[in-house]
Amino acid sequence: MVAIVLSISWIVAAMKFGDRDWRKYYPSMLFAALGNALYEVLCYKYQLWSMEPNGVVYSIIPMMLLILVGMPLSTWVFLSKYPYKLSIIKKAIYVLFFILVFIVLEYISIKLGAISYHNGWNLGWSLLFVIVMFIVIRLHFSRPILALIISIPFSLILCMIFEVTLDKMK
Prior knowledge:
The protein is mainly alpha-helical. The protein is 68% helix and 4% strand. The longest helix is centred in the middle third of the chain and has 24 residues, at 88-111. The radius of gyration is 16 Å and the shape is globular.
């Protein structure tokens, strides 16, 4: 149920704050969604975090809502209002705001049983992940190849830290 409420919230936020010219953000929206989808597929048998059914019949529903609604629309909103021409301090405050929003939403989701952690993952790791995620999403908007280059070693480091080996992947 939490995933449905969050999806509706992201739809409303996108309608209210998203730049009408959403097509220029589309590659980064796909990048964010694909990153989440890859995690769900590769770590299906050895998850670090998982979306729980939380009131819906099938556990795939929250996962699909995050991949198809949450990540693309939050990326759209994030990039639409990003202060491109302002100072580095204002940019940092903006990114910190989105990090805070994501961590608060995740904390609430944990408390309501919509997200569970496994294999050593915790809210601290999520915080680090979200910090890197927003930096890389912003970078992807202007320099997509560089964002991909940064994403690969970061993902590999997380795989090493949490012992996500090929035999544990789907």
